[in-house]
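Q: I'm a student working through a structural biology exercise. My instructor gave each of us a protein and asked us to get a predicted structure, then write a short paragraph describing it. Mine is Universal stress protein. I'm not confident about reading structure output yet, so if you can add a plain explanation after the tokens, that would really help. Here is the sequence I was given:
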Amino acid sequence: MHRILAPVDLDEKRALSQVRWIASLPDAERSVRVILVFVFERDELDDLPAAVKSGGSSRDVVTSVAVAYQYLEERDVDVTLVDRRFNPVEKIRQEVLKRDVQTIVLGGRKNPPVGRHSYGSVAQSLLLLTDVPIVITGRNVPPVDDSES
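A: Happy to help. First, here is the predicted structure for Universal stress protein. I'll explain a few features afterward.
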């Protein structure tokens, strides 16, 4: 099994772009294991229900996580959700090492007018701190054509 780590944030379009790319891999339903990671930041915790604060799942309250998880599940891609608290770069790096991840799939932000790709601070840090190949998908989500599957 090819283990892919997909750290998702609050942006639903980015999360959907990440999991669409993963699900498009050849034979993904049999050859890919996805670890979705959501890292709660301190300011996000204030707005969450008590159940999540005490260990409940981000899938129950974070739309981007629920959409990404459901997308993979509907396509029979093996998916596990991991919730962590604070310090996203370090928590993601720990999951990469702990789970022997072979690829990280990140959601990109946007292309500035000069043609360079704009990376968020988490993506930039992971590019510098890990030896694992990183795929950065765009934020624009193309329409799904499931007629070919």
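A: Here are two points you could use in your paragraph. Residues 12-23 form the longest helix (12 residues). Helices lie at 12-23, 28-31, 42-45, 50-53, 63-74, 88-98, 121-129. It's a good idea to check both against the output above yourself.
Q: Great, thank you!
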